[in-house]
Amino acid sequence: MLEIGSLVDGKYKILNQVGHGGMSVVYLAMNEKANKQWAIKEVRKDGVKDFEVVKQSLVAETDMLKKLNHPNLPSIIDVIEDEDRFLIVMDYIQGNALSKALEEYGAQPQEEVIQWAKQLCDVLGYLHSRVPPIIYRDMKPANIMLKPDGNVTLIDFGTAREFKERNLADTTCLGTVGYAAPEQFGGMGQTDARTDIYCLGATLYHLVTGMNPCEPPYEIKPIRQINPSLSGGLERIILKCTQRNPDDRYQSAAELMYALEHYDEIDDLYRRKQKKKLALFLVSMALSVICAGTSFWGYLSAQKKQSENYDGILATATDCEDYYEAMITDPTRTEAYEQLNEYLISDFELSKEEGQVLLKLIAGLEQNNRKGFTERYEVLKDLKKSNPDGYMDICYQTGETFLFYYDVNAERDRYDYAAMWFEEAKEKYPIAEIYCEISDCLNLTNQYNGAKVKQTEKMYEEYKNLWGMLQELKEKVDGFESIDSKLQVWSEINHMINTKTAPFLEVTDANELIALLNSISEEAGKVDKSVILEDMKSLQADIKETIAKIETAK
Description:
The protein is α+β, with helices and mostly antiparallel strands. It is 56% helix and 11% strand. It is built from 22 helices and 13 strands.
């Protein structure tokens, strides 16, 4: 165990123990230089059977959390491994698990439980919308921290998994009996978003009744049989969440969120109060309702038909034109855009012609209408207007497609096209702004390429500005958690200094250039060696080569 008062990795001072489980101990630590508290989760090798298996699970958990950014999820700060143990440094969540509140006070107030449920629904909706979706699978009071401000944080991703559409079943049966959905124990296909709906329903049942579904009689009863004062609307919601057949549950977190926001309207008492008013209204407005109903039924039928057509097109899609057709059928859904991206880079390369397929979305798609005339469909504008969050997801994904897969010799083209898409995603993805700044840097320097370019005061002024931008980029990316993003930006900074060594030496001291590069190399050396060791070694070797070039030129 870590000693109280000891220093971990030269910067985390252990203050006290705040929790422990079967395999791990959690400590509160302070980074005295940053004056910030963190939680450190320790798993010792000598206390765990099959440590390598456990380690793989921990690495998977930390890798998954590093990709996530949500106010109700903890952030992973650092991963440290030595001969005796595995340490995970993460956000310190003040407060206690809801399981402790149940132990001390029993059933929790209904209104508070519903507020917590909405926050958890928002978290699940975020996880399920990742590409690929992340299925949490272990929702229970012990994994929900209640903070002093009344908000909750979802912890412990040890059983979470990425949903793989082609899997017929999960390879492992994980979760907590009582809260876990039937499909988590084999024989009913793989777990999906509806599994988390079940687990959340079981958790809400425990919170509002105080009855633990993990204990006898091991069942989830209608909550008003236990406490008649509880809402009938909430009772219906919990019963629907915990149906044995996933098809009978809410099909998404968004659908459950809507029900929670209107639970009082589902309540029997509310429905009885409205019955008389509704009867009078129906008598006085009968003809209007019939006309409106006919119209509305037609609208619903059209919407259902549109959805069926969209799904059918995607199910049989074999080329770009099929994905275009799906987008035109319903431009507000993101699946066609996502699948088009995946289709184009299935060979890990985006050719110039394939790049034009994506750029065509900006100009608009053309298709002959029923009268035989060509009609233009601005699908991206429709997506942005009706689904701005999904629009930013698609723009960021397409930006990455150009940045990492575009097969062109001109580096500037790759970044210019990527920046077009990243510009639209900056509000949701901070790293997109970094990539746009790199594109600006490249545009700034490329105008001075070539041996015959006249060296002017303007050129030196631009390189002085560029040097400042590179320093700012280094500082910004240090604050990001994504190792892939850091590696990309660090590599670009080194590449620009390497290819533009002479003009940089005209506007700044060689020692400053070397100091920046050494700083990047040092940061790269701190990255978890199990992640992308070869890439980091390659980067450090490239930096060493650039420094040698600077030493020779100065």
